[in-house]
Specification:
Blueprint (H helix, E strand, L loop, with lengths): L12 E4 L8 H11 L3 E5 L5 H12 L4 E5 L4 H9 L4 E3 L5 H9 L3 E3 L1 E2 L2 H9 L5 E3 L2 H4 L1 H8 L8 E4 L7 H6 L4 E4 L10 H20 L1
Helix pairs in contact: 1-2, 1-9
C-alpha cells in the first residue's frame, strides 16, 4: 500500500463540491464529515474556492482532508497550500502540476484515461489516479488498464458515478470514488445533502461488507 494513501484510515469517498460558496463551507462540510465522508474537494471553478477551502480547514482541523479540484496550473497549487489544503485534484494529466504538488508535500490525484497517461502520472509522482470520466471508461476497460499498473496503485473512479455503480466497480478492484452532482449541487438544501451523504455511505459500506 502506498505510504501516502489518504484512504488508509478514511472511507475512500471524495465529495466534489462544485459550485459551493464560502458561506456554505462549514455547514456542508460538517454534514459530510458527520455522515462519514471526510475527504472534500472544492473545484477551482467554484465561487471563491480558496476562501471556502480555508474556512473548512480552520473549522475542522484534522477531522477532514480538504483540497482543490480542477487544478490546471502550478500557481494554483501554491494557493491551495497557502490556505491549508492537502489534496490537489485535476481533470487532466499535467506533470508540472503533479511535481509541484509533491514538491509542496501535498497529495496528488491527476485525471487519467489511458495506460500512457497512468504511467506518466505515476512517473511524475502522483499518489493516486483519477479515472475520468469513469462512466465512459467503464469497468471492463479499467480492469484491462489496471492489469498493467504497479500493484500498489491507488485508483479512483470519477465522473458519472453514483452509489448504484459501487458494486460493479469494486468487483474490478477500484479503490475509491469521487462523488459530484449526485451528492451536491449549488442551491441544494442542507437536509438533502445530509440524506444523500448518509445514503451513499450506507450503500458503500454494504457493498464492502457483502
Amino acid at each position: 500500500m502506498n505510504k501516502n494513501n489518504i484512504f488508509e484510515s478514511r472511507r475512500p469517498l471524495i465529495a466534489i463540491l462544485r459550485g459551493i460558496t464560502p458561506l456554505e463551507a462549514e455547514s456542508v462540510s460538517d454534514i459530510l464529515i458527520e455522515a462519514g465522508i471526510s475527504i472534500i474537494e472544492v473545484p477551482l471553478n467554484s465561487p471563491q474556492p480558496f476562501e471556502t477551502i480555508e474556512r473548512m480547514v480552520k473549522f475542522h482541523g484534522e477531522n477532514g482532508i480538504f483540497g482543490a479540484g480542477t487544478v490546471l496550473r502550478e500557481y494554483d497549487v501554491y494557493r491551495v497550500q497557502e490556505v491549508g489544503g492537502k489534496i490537489v485534484v485535476s481533470p487532466n494529466l499535467n506533470t508540472l502540476v503533479i511535481k509541484k504538488t509533491k514538491e509542496l508535500n501535498m497529495y496528488s490525484i491527476p485525471g487519467v484515461f489511458t495506460a500512457t497517461e497512468c504511467f506518466d502520472a505515476l512517473d511524475s509522482g502522483a499518489d493516486a489516479l483519477k479515472f475520468f470520466p469513469a462512466s465512459l471508461l467503464k469497468e471492463e476497460n479499467f480492469r484491462a488498464i489496471q492489469a498493467v499498473l504497479p500493484e500498489n496503485t491507488i485508483s479512483i473512479a470519477v465522473g458519472g458515478i453514483s452509489e448504484k455503480a459501487f458494486a460493479s466497480w469494486l468487483q474490478v478492484n477500484i479503490n475509491g470514488f469521487g462523488l459530484g452532482s449526485n451528492l451536491y449541487k449549488p442551491g441544494i438544501l442542507i437536509e438533502e445533502v445530509k440524506l444523500k451523504a448518509e445514503n451513499i455511505v450506507k450503500f458503500y459500506d454494504n457493498c464492502v461488507r457483502s
